[in-house]
Amino acid sequence: MAGDRLPRKVMDAKKLASLLRGGPGGPLVIDSRSFVEYNSWHVLSSVNICCSKLVKRRLQQGKVTIAELIQPAARGQVEATEPQDVVVYDQSTRDASVLAADSFLSILLSKLDGCFDSVAILTGGFATFSSCFPGLCEGKPAALLPMSLSQPCLPVPSVGLTRILPHLYLGSQKDVLNKDLMTQNGISYVLNASNSCPKPDFICESRFMRIPVNDSYCEKLLP
């Protein structure tokens, strides 16, 4: 791994805040936490590569590339010919040298080293950055979100589409009926889990499948 050859480059919260305030042309900021944590609250303009076991395994096996994992809006930065700086953060890591070689962050950093000229880890992760610069974060702090989702129809604002895998998104009825949003993310097939959500007019019948499920905490999802 690159981290075994040279000490891992680091960036502190103050430096990242300065770069973000500098406007366009700054580094590509990658959030390596789970998609739930990312959608709750994240660094302004960051993109998420979620730390799931599946993504980790596919990265290790070389079955998925960094470009495939990056959200479409930021994919141009991965494929750009000019040098590109990258800053990666997790929740609270302060010292990359103590990371286990088989940890998701270590594997991700190693793969990023092969794609970019400069890859740094954010010292203290999102915990430190969000406490110092909450105005440079997007979303809602976890403390403001409901502690339980075990009841139907909670009045939680939609956070938009959530990318679970490179070609798999989770979204609401509002999201799936938004043609521009669907086109922007390259979504052309819909698997609908509801009894009543309408089929989008721009999705043909052969690309729409409904699994009838009631929007209720009593519904048995396993079958």
From TrEMBL:
GO terms for biological process: negative regulation of MAPK cascade. Transmembrane segments: none annotated. InterPro entries: MKP, Prot-tyrosine_phosphatase-like, Rhodanese-like_dom, Rhodanese-like_dom_sf. It comes from the Eukaryota. GO terms for cellular component: cytoplasm. Residues 23-138 form the Rhodanese domain. Gene3D superfamilies: Protein tyrosine phosphatase superfamily, Rhodanese-like domain. Keywords: Hydrolase, Protein phosphatase. SMART domains: RHOD. This is Rhodanese domain-containing protein.
